[in-house]
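HUMAN: Quick job: go over this next protein and say how the chain folds.
***
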Amino acid sequence: FQMKSENKKTIWNTEEVPEGSEFDDTWDPREKPEYEISFKQHVGTEDVFFGMTGKDPSTACCEDIVIKIKLPETKYSDITLDIQDKVLDLRTPKNKLLLHLPYPVNSKEGRARFLSEEEILEVTLRVSRKLDLINFS
């Protein structure tokens, strides 16, 4: 069994490497912070009272992913956040979080805010979905 490669010097194909594995760093001693993932959808009266748009409470109908990350004893200036289509990479001097996201997101439309009193970073990311019968807008 021999696989063909574009470059003779490569020892694996790009299909063999899982997406987001370039961010994995098993030797990093920083601890993983606690986090919580929730989903958010925008509903109006046509959804609540009439059910006109066909939305349901499942994650398939949600437009945003909200990730709340607890970062005790961290200042806003110490946070480095990198968001790719399917990966969130957060680094501080004490913590490191590599999170593979449940859905692809639009990394350019996200927003983050640091709640200093609660020591929580709240990241809101817009889910990037293909149009279908439920997600048609």
Remarks:
- The chain has a mean pLDDT of 80.
- The first helix runs from residue 45 to 48.
- The beta strands are 35-40, 64-70, 80-83, 87-91, 96-100, 105-115, 120-127.
- The first strand starts at residue 35 and ends at 40.
